[in-house]
Structures
1.
Amino acid sequence: MSLHTPTLHTTRLRLRPFDDTDADALFTLHSNAYVLRYWDAPPWTDRVRAERFITACRQMATEGTGTRLAVDRMSDGTFLGWCSLNRWNPDYRSASLGYCYDDAAWGHGYATEAARALLHWAFDTLDLNRVQAETDTRNVASARVLEKLGFVREGTLREDCVVNGEVSDSWVYGLLRREWRRPSEPVSAR
C-alpha cells in the first residue's frame, strides 16, 4: 500500500518529499557532529548515505510505513532539515514523529512549526489516534519542542542507546488525538 506523500505549507515553511538534488544538503546536515550529538548513530562520513536516505524515504512512502519530508524556508528556499512520521500502523492508527534540523535553524520555531503541520496532516488525513516521539534525555531543546506541541512525557527508556560511545536514556512522549490542538495558522496540503 502506498502512502501519499504530501507537500505541506505553513506561513514560513514548505514540507516536501525529498528529491535527488537534496543529497548534498542532507549530507551536510547528517555529517555535522554537533547537530547529531544526541543522535543514536554517528555522523555520516560518506555522501552515498544521503542517497540511500532519499531512497529509503521513497521506499517508506511506497510501503505505506511513513513519510519523511524535507523542510525548506519559504522566503529563500533554504533547506533547514527534515520532519517525519514513521512506523505508521493503520490498524492501531499510530505513528512516530522524528525530526532533524541544521543548527543554524535552531531557536526560530521551525521544528515546532513543521511538526505541527505534519501532525495536522497525520490527525486529519491519516486519522491517527496516537503519535509517539522519543528524545535523548540530554536534548532539552527537543523535549521543549514536543511539549510545545502538546506531547506528554510518558516515561524513560533507561540506557536504551549508545550515543558517541556513551550510554544514554531516552524520554518517550505521546500525543493523543483528543489532546491535539489544531494549528491556529493555516496549513495547506498539495
Note: The first helix runs from residue 23 to 30.
2.
Amino acid sequence: MHREPTILEAAGGPEAVLRLARAWHERVMADEVVSHAFSHGFRADHTERLAAYLTEAWGGPTEFSDHLGSHSEVVSLHSGEGEHVEMDRRGEACFAEALVDAGIPAEVQPVLRDYWHWATVLMAGHPTGHDPSSNEPLPHWGWDGLQPTSAR
C-alpha cells in the first residue's frame, strides 16, 4: 500500500523545519516592521520551540505538546495585539523567503505558505484575554489544509 508523505516528510523532516525556523527568525529580525513584534524580548530557544511546534503541526512527533507547551499558550502569547495588516503581510513574505533559504522543496512550499497564512489569521483573530489553560489541541495541517481533530 502506497502512503502519501506527510507535509513534514515532504519538507525534509525536523532538521529542515529547524532550518526554516532559523531562517524565518533571521529574516523577521532584519525586517524593520516585523521585528517590532520581538521588541519586548523573546525566549533564547524561540527558534527551537517554533520548529517543534511546526514539526508537530505538520505531522511529526508531539514533542512540543508533550514537553514544551500547549497550543493555547501559543495563541495566548500571540493574540490580542490588535490589527497589524502590514506586519502580517511582511511576516508572511519573510516566511516565503525563509522557505527558499532553508532549502524546502518547491512542491511543498505552497501548502506551507497556506499554513503560515492560516496561522497568522488564527493568531490575529483571538481577542485579548485568550485563556491559555483552555487546552485547545495543536491544530494539524495536511495537504488539504486544516485536518479534523478526529483524523489525527
Note: The radius of gyration is 15 Å.
3.
Amino acid sequence: MRIDKMLSNLGFGSRKEVKKLLKDGAVQVNEELVKDPKYHVDTDQDVVTVHGEEIQYREFIYLMMNKPPGVISATEDDRDQTVIDLLELEDRIFEPFPVGRLDKDTEGLLLITNDGQLAHKLLSPKKHVPKTYFAVIDGEVTEEDIQAFKRGVVLDDGYETKPGELVILKSGIRSDIELTITEGKFHQVKRMFQAVGKRVVYLQRLTMGPLALDETLELGEYRELTEEEIDALMGYQV
C-alpha cells in the first residue's frame, strides 16, 4: 500500500496533509526516512513510525456498542443523533457502519464495523442468524403466546414470521420475556407481540449469533471486540 494512503486511512490527515508530514521528515519505514508519498509499504512486515511512534495498520475495525435509546442505527441523519456520532474520531475514520438496525427507542447490542463481508454474512436472510431480545410487555404473556410464536405469527402486513423461541421470565400485568428470532423484519419484535394483542414497552437486544452484550458497557459506551469474539463471528455457522 502507498504510504500516503496508509497514513491517510489511519487518520493522519488528508493526502495533502500527509504529504507535508512526509516532506517534514516525520515518517520512517524500517528506521529509514521516507519522503515519497508513492513509497509502497508492506503493512504486515514493515515497521512504520510517525514522529518516532510506531503505528499499526489495520483494514477493519470491529466494535460492540450498548446502544442507548433516542439514537438511530445509521451512519448519518439530518435530524437525529446516530450511533456513529457516538464514536471517537479515531474510530470514525475507518468509516464503520452498524450491522443491522435497532429501532430508535431500542437499547442493547449493536455491532459496528467496516467489514462488509462479515456484515453480509450476519444479515443475509439465508443465514438465519439468531438474535435474542429482552422485553417488558404490557399484559400477561402466556403459554398460548409461546406456542403461537413457536408456529410463527402473522404480522399486520400479512407476513408470517419464522418460528420464534419465547421464554417467560415473569408473567403478570407487566411481563418480562426473552425472545429469540432468526430474521429481522422492520419492528419485528413489537409487531409479533401486536399480533397476539400485546404491547412492548421496553426492548433490549442481548445477543446476535455468537456475540453477547458486554454487561459492563453503560448505555452509549462501546469497545473493540476481542480476538476471540472476532474469531467466533468469522467462523460462525448456524
Note: The radius of gyration is 23 Å.
4.
Amino acid sequence: MSVLVGRQAPDFEAAAVLGDGTIVENFKLSDSNGKLRVLFFWPLDFTFVCPSEIIAHDNRLAQFKELGVEVIGASIDSQFTHYAWRKTSPDAGGIGEVGFPIVADVKHEVTQAYGIEHPEAGVALRASFLIDEEGVVQHQTVNNLPLGRNVDEMLRMVKALKHHQKHGEVCPAGWDEGKEGMKDNAEGVAKYLGEYSKEL
C-alpha cells in the first residue's frame, strides 16, 4: 500500500471500453493531462458492491463534467468483460451503458503502480484518486472489499480543490460549496474558529 497524495499519478496505457462503447487498445491517462480526473478502481466485474459504485459515479457524471472532471474507472477484468457488463442492464446485475471509460488492467500493472492490490485476493481495493491538471494526486481513499464508497464525498473534494485553486484558501473540516474557506495563517485560523468552531 502506498500513499500517492502530493506525487505524480502513475501514467499508464491499457485497453479500455470508452463511454460510447468503443473498445480501444491504447487508452492513456496522460491523454487527459490539463484536466481534473477521478480515477477509481473496483475489485471485479459481475460482482456485488461494485455495480452500485459504478452506477453511482455514472449518475453523477453530469455533475463531474460540469466541474471539468474526467471520470475513469478500472479493474483487472478484460475489455471484453467490461463490454459485456456494460451490455447487462442494472436489473440483471449489470452496470448499463455508463458514460465514462473503463480500463482493462488485466496484467494488474495499473493496480500495482497505484499500490492498491489486495494482498490476498489479488484484485484492486476500492480506491479513488483525485488527480489535478498537472497530474498530481490531490486526494485518495482506499476501502476494503466490503465497504462501498460515497461518491458525493469525491464531488465535495473536487469542489474543495477548485475553491483552493481559485481563492488560495484552505478548506476546513466539513467544508462544502458556498461555505467560507480559511486563510492559511494564524490570523485566518483564529478568525475561522472564532466564528465556526461550534459547528464543526
Note: The longest strand covers residues 69-75.
